[in-house]
Amino acid sequence: MQKWRSDSSPGGMGPEGGISTDRKAAEQRRPSHQRILGSAVILLAAIAALVLFVANPPPIERARMLTYSPSQIRESRLKHANTGRVYPVRAAFVILVRNSELHDLRATVRQLEDQFNKRHHYAYVFLNNEPFTEEFKQAMEWATTGDCHFGLVPYEHWSMPPWVDRVRARRTMAMMADKVPYGDSESYRKMCRYESGFFFQHPLLDNFDYYWRVEPGVEFTCAIPYDPFKYMVDHNKLYGFTISLIEFPITVKTLWQTTNAFRATYPGYIAPNNTLDWVTAPNGSYNMCHFWSNFEIASLDFFRSPAYTAYFDFLDRAGGFFLERWGDAPVHSLAVSMLLNKEQVHYFDIGYLHKPFQNCPIDPDFNDMHCFCNPNRSAIYNPDSCTKAWLAL
């Protein structure tokens, strides 16, 4: 059966699907230099297409490219190490995370990169009480623009210390099971103890002076047009926060009296212009105010200081991380209020969401241009927020 050309132009396909007689004749009449030029154009177009494919592979090819050999992974993790880049601050994002939280963390990191770090390339330190999978490492390398460091939490930093009465601790967990979030969780208590007293001791943080804590699943809802790390250094700030709230009283029954015992034992550590008034109720008890520590930008030297070390050791010996459910947020907050001067602490009006609470900048001009959050729903307007009281100090 005769095959027909797909169109009727003289230069189309002939009856048998080959080049037509008219087109062959035209090719023979064409000057040789034109034929050479045409071939060169075709070659250049092919090269350009290949370059575009390599630079922007389709999703299926990107998935294949995620399969690195161990040596390639090591090289990738050092991709910014020898660029000669001078960073304004020796700082890193610190993320305590499980392998199972990869999906949530990938979304968080992608937002953090888009809103801030793609312009600064600060490093990431990922910590886990179990070894990270290669899938996790490769995914984070793919998602970030800064160096990635992956560390294992030492067992002794993620365990119940021997001086804690285990029977009493487990009785407390059972009693709290239905009363507060993570009330019956021993793992959560280990995490709170680790974030209170050990994360800053990890060797991967030895070369850093400041850290920005990030958690899987949080959202950064506004562009961050300046460098918060540099702001901290330039303005002599040692601790920064975005949200402050009221703690569950049942979780910290003896934290305040233990803190007061520390103050009496170590009066020389108390800052002269401290903000203890912010955490003190009119009757002298703890009013439960605390900085929400899932977002904090702070000096590692503060947490490594003799004053903070003495405070954590004092609390740790009391056993309240397990005999109650002392969280790292109230521990950090009481330490900051007691050991730092007010001018060393900063409220960052950064777009941030940790469900169900968020901070949304109140500047309408900035918000309209750079944010996708509703300032009317900002935690500062929540009756359980302590931020207005802190700003009024």
Bulk shape? globular
Element-level helix/strand string: HHHHEHEHEHHEHEEHEEHHHHEEEHH
CATH architecture group name: Alpha-Beta Complex
Strand content: 5-15%
Number of strands: 11
Nearest-integer average pLDDT: 85
Count of helical stretches: 16
State the main characteristics.
393 residues, alpha/beta, Spore Coat Polysaccharide Biosynthesis Protein SpsA, Chain A, 7-stranded mixed β-sheet, two-stranded antiparallel sheet, 16 helices, 40% helix, disordered N terminus
Question: How would you sum up this structure, described in words?
Answer:
The protein is of the alpha/beta class. It has one domain: Spore Coat Polysaccharide Biosynthesis Protein SpsA, Chain A (Alpha-Beta Complex), CATH 3.90.550. It contains 16 helices and eleven strands. The chain has helices spanning 21-29, 32-55, 59-65, 70-77, 102-115, 134-143, 166-176, 186-197, 228-234, 255-265, 300-304, 306-318, 320-323, 328-339, 364-370, 387-391; strands at residues 91-96, 123-128, 148-152, 210-213, 239-241, 244-246, 289-291, 297-299, 345-347, 352-354, 357-359. The protein has a seven-stranded mixed sheet. A two-stranded antiparallel sheet has the order 6-7. Helix 5 runs parallel beside helix 6 (134-143), helix 8 (186-197) packs parallel to helix 14 and helix 10 crosses helix 12 (306-318). The protein is globular and about 50 Å long. The N and C termini lie far apart (93 Å).
In short:
The chain is of the alpha/beta class. It has a single domain (91-391), classed as Spore Coat Polysaccharide Biosynthesis Protein SpsA, Chain A, CATH 3.90.550.10.
